[in-house]
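I am going through a labmate's work and have reached the protein record below. What it holds is a sequence and that sequence's fold in token form. Please read both lines and tell me whether the tokens look consistent with the sequence. Do not assume that whoever made the record got everything right. Thanks in advance; the entry in question is below.
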Amino acid sequence: MSRSRIMIKFWYILRFVLLLTLISTPQLAIVFVIKNKAPIWAAWLLFIFLYLVAIFFLIKTLKPLTKKIFKPLTKGQIKTVLLVFVAIYGLNIIYSLLSNNTETQNNQVISQLFSYSPALKAMMACMTVLFAPLCEELLFRGILINSFSPKNYGWALFFSGFLFGLVHLNNSVIGFLLYMGIGWLLAYSYRRHNNLTVNWTIHLLINLLATLALLSI
């Protein structure tokens, strides 16, 4: 492998890590709310500002990689949304049966955060339903998959799911496999339609279902 190719791969890895860090920074606003370090209005401003900055850089990074980012859903794509949604819901049921646990560690942490003040509940709902799915789809499906050449799409789909599982790492192998499987299903959806609207809709519906369950407690 030539030195130039090594440097390109190194840059791709560094870019991914930097963008992953960037989409995690809005959680600082949540910490401020929990520890009462700032007024609620200031925490909300910080929360929205950091997410807008993250989305700006994600889209700016993705645009040179593909001209097609978000497009209206077609009937065939709506069918994919429903099928993948059901498949992911099925994976969650299998996880519950195999682990004797209805929630992954990731969801347990989110559940604890939802038990705080109403202001934090609203912020968490906004993050889990809207912003987090959008940022994760832009990064894990849009940028990551399009960083590979077309002939290496197999590796692109594999790493998209693998890293998605790694980032949502649980203290169990089953939990990791669950998120990796979800990542592969989302990567398949993007590879098939090349439309992040499909992925964002699936991700949003899954998180919305979980969020409504938490808000009803």
Remarks:
- The longest helix spans residues 118-146.
